[in-house]
Amino acid sequence: MALSVPRIVVVGAGFGGLEAAKALDRAAAEVTVIDRHNHHCFQPLLYQVATAALSPADVAWPIRHILRDQRNATVLMEEVVAVDAARKYIRTTMNEIPYDYLVLATGATHSYFGHDEWAPVAPGLKRIEDATRIRRSILIAFERAEAMADRAAQNRLLTFVIVGGGATGVEMAGAIADIARQTLAADFRNIDPRAARIVLIEAGPRLLPAFPPDMSDYVRATLMKAGVDVRTDTMVTKCDEGGVDTNAGRIDAGTVIWAAGVVASPAARWLGVEADRAGRVKVGPDLSLPDHPEIFVIGDTAAVFASDGHPVPGIAPAAKQMGHYVGTLIAARVAGQSGGKPFRYRHLGDLATIGRRAAVVKFGRLQLKGFVGWVFWSVAHIYFLIGLRYRFMVAFTWFWDYLTFQRGARLITGSEQPRQK
Ligand SMILES: Cc1cc2nc3c(=O)[nH]c(=O)nc-3n(C[C@H](O)[C@H](O)[C@H](O)COP(=O)(O)OP(=O)(O)OC[C@H]3O[C@@H](n4cnc5c(N)ncnc54)[C@H](O)[C@@H]3O)c2cc1C
């Protein structure tokens, strides 16, 4: 490739970064995609890995493979630690890499609202490693309880607390209830897995605040029917090895899962620019920095507002739309065209599943719930998976699990010590 073509560096191969890179497919440019992992992770299905329904390889694919046919793209597995906007370099743990255009799409991570010390005892779900760690602690809880004579200790081990009543919390609670009441029901001799206690804690007045109140009520009723103890208006004040403290009392638990908040990647710090309360970079109408039109920030790392004044939500379609917009814009600039319309977000809808046979769906005026919602949810997620083989495998796995109540990925792996004592 000629040395004189513009160098476009895309940091992060999540939903936003990949879409940006793909939109640069035909640009006469050198596109470098950098990610600290070698895989793109389909986060909406991570909870299925955490609850043993799917294997990690069902929801994550090598970035190198995804971009293998894009001749102008090079993939580097490196961690970015700084940006020198004046010299137009990014620094990784190994290299300095120059750019003419920079797209930062480094996503977000869990926020413990100033209590990072809770992280080791209340893991969040963001990466494949988080999902396998949570899967391990859920499955180990049952194994340890089976081997334990003391009833009180058994009860504590078989109590699962999920903090946060958004989509991830609801999905985790429903799936753990399925594991306890169905998948494992007949597998143990000294404990009855169906007696496991699953507590879903939400600080606000209702679950899934992005949905209309009647759908939140439906979600709550469905979870309660599945045996989940739903506690809204309840604030967690402390997480420790033995459970959680809340404003309504202590809950002893063997497993605590954090699904309560997110904070953006440190891109604002790298750039030395203003961020909002969630750490997201404030960008202009074309998603670039006001003082650096060659630097774009997209996806969960950017604070963007829709035309109605509402913040663009931190969801995959939003990141993809931003990625496509920025990739197309840079391609136009590289081709010598200028201008272009400001970014416009189009909200497609909201989806959340509740256990193995119910979901809520809100797509414009279309509102679905129950089994029909679940079918819609399943088809939508299979559609967005990458590659025919994965679509087929996931669809088959779900169909099989649906018929048999089984979960095929019940492996306890890894050497990390479980937190249950
Ligand atoms: C458990 C869970 C469930 C979700 N469910 C849904 C859902 O059902 N529907 C929905 O629409 N959205 C869902 N989301 C939100 C959605 O996944 C995000 O909004 C989306 O991934 C944001 O895309 P992004 O490109 O901004 O970041 P990401 O997709 O998170 O990608 C960021 C990438 O940057 C890389 N990276 C980060 N820091 C560095 C660094 N320093 N150096 C190099 N690389 C770096 C990461 O490895 C990652 O690959 C869910 C999120 C989670 C965590």
From TrEMBL:
Q: Which reaction does it catalyse?
A: a quinone + NADH + H(+) = a quinol + NAD(+)
* Transmembrane domains' residue ranges: 371-390
Q: Sorted alphabetically, which keywords does the UniProt record give?
A: FAD, Flavoprotein, Membrane, NAD, Oxidoreductase, Transmembrane, Transmembrane helix
State a single Gene Ontology molecular function: NADH dehydrogenase (quinone) (non-electrogenic) activity
Top EC group: oxidoreductase
Superkingdom assignment? Bacteria
The cross-references to InterPro entries, in alphabetical order and at most eight, read: FAD/NAD-bd_sf, FAD/NAD-binding_dom, NDH-2
The UniProt record lists the FAD/NAD(P)-binding domain at 7-323
Q: What is its EC number?
A: 1.6.5.9
Family annotation (Pfam families): Pyr_redox_2
Q: Which Gene3D superfamilies match?
A: 3.50.50.100
Which family is annotated?
Belongs to the NADH dehydrogenase family.
Q: What is this protein called?
A: NADH:ubiquinone reductase (non-electrogenic)
